[in-house]
Amino acid sequence: MTRFIGPAIASGMAALAGGTALSRALLRYREGAPPEALSDDSSPLSLRRYSVLTRLAGDEDERFLRTLPGFKEEMLSRLRSERRVILRMYLRELTADFRRLHRAARLMVAAAPQEHADLVGVLMRQQITFWRCLAGIESRLALKPLGLPRVDTSRLLEVVEALRAAVAGTATSPAIA
């Protein structure tokens, strides 16, 4: 029995360290301007500018780099590092856009008639889904060197698109999720 205590403590410490690192990473997405201070321009949000997330998270460029003459592992390491930085920059912008849209949706729900009060729960679930997806992406980015499968940003983009469509009035009122 005592031979399991050491590994259990080590596993617990590793989980605690991983949780702390993930919490810090997610808090960085919350930093910056509050959603009400973000751009209030009336131009509609286009998620096309975030289509690059799929390529940044993919492995196609790494496979291509390996085929080039003069390829060195250091080149691949540098590419991965720079891509994580760029991916996180896009994720911060996407988070700011989500926060702005979510604030607009909350204001719409607050002004809505009483029969739409159930939308508050829908908005809460949507926010939880967004942050859960973001946490999954951050976890995979941190653990990618250990061989975790590639990062998938599609669900995160789906959540933002659903909210964007609802705020723009292109979705039916209960379909904010």
Set out the fold topology:
Elements: H1 5-30, H2 52-57, H3 60-67, H4 73-111, H5 119-143, H6 154-168
What would you note in describing this structure?
- Helices cover 67% and strands 0% of the residues.
- The N and C termini lie far apart (48 Å).
- With 177 residues, it is mainly alpha-helical.
- The protein has 6 helices and no strands.
- The protein has one domain (48-176).
The value of Rg in angstroms is 20 Å
Structural class: mainly alpha
Question: How many E-type strands?
Answer: 0
Helix content percent band: 55-70%
Low-confidence stretches: 37-42, 170-177
Overall number of domains: 1
What is the overall number of helices?
6
CA-to-CA gap between the ends?
48 Å
Helix-strand sequence: HHHHHH
| Average of the residue pLDDT scores | 77
Proportion of residues in extended strands: under 5%
Shape designation: flat
Note the main sheet.
none
Oligomeric composition of the shown chains: single chain
In short:
The chain is built from six helices and no strands.
Q: What are the main properties of this structure?
A:
177 residues; mainly alpha; 6 helices; disordered C terminus
